[in-house]
Amino acid sequence: MVKIAEIDSLAKEFSKLPSIGPKSALRLTYFYINNKPLIGNMVNALNNLMNNVDKCNVCHNITSKSVNPCLYCSDINRNKYQICVVESFQDVDSIESSGTYNGCYHVLGGVISSLNNISYDDIYVTDLIRRVNKNDTFEIILATSFTLEGDATAMYIKSLFKDYSNISFSRLASGLPRGANLEYIDENTLGRALSGRVQYDS
Prior knowledge:
By secondary structure, the protein is an alpha/beta fold. The protein is built from 8 helices and 7 strands. α1 packs across α2 (22-34) and α5 packs across α8.
C-alpha cells in the first residue's frame, strides 16, 4: 500500500487514544476519509472542547470556562465540609449517578504509582490541604480505587493530615471488588458502598 503522510499522521493521533491500537486507528482514519462531511463537525467539537472546557480552580473537576468554580463547588446546597477524594473526572460522574452523595469533590488526576513514575507531585494533593482549615470539622472520603496504588495514595493523603484533629477519614464500604476502578462499578453498588462507608484508620 502507498504510504500517504496525511493518513499516517491522523492514524498516529488516533492511536494515542485509550484502547485504540494501530489497526483501529487506521479504521477510524478510513472512516473519516469515506465520511468527509463529518470531519468539520469533529473539528468544531474539538475546538469547542479546547476553548471552552477547563478544570475547576477549586476541586480540579472538569467545568466550563464560564462556570469556575464548577457547579458542585459553587452549589450552596452541597456540604462544603465533606470532601470526596477521587482519581478522575469519570469517578465524579459515577458517584453522582448513584444519587447518594451531596458533598463536594477533589479530583487528584491520578494515583501515586512508582511503576508509572507518578509521584505525589504529579497529582493534586497539596491543593486538597489548602481546602481544609483547622477551624472547621471536615470529613474526607477517600474514594480512590481498591488497587495497590489507590490504597497507597489513600494512606499517603491521610498521613498529610496527621496533625489535624478536626478531620475524620472514611473509605468506601465493602461490596467493591479488590482491584476495582470506580469508573466501572454500577451505580447501585457504588451508592451502597458510599452510604455505608467506614472510618479509615489504616
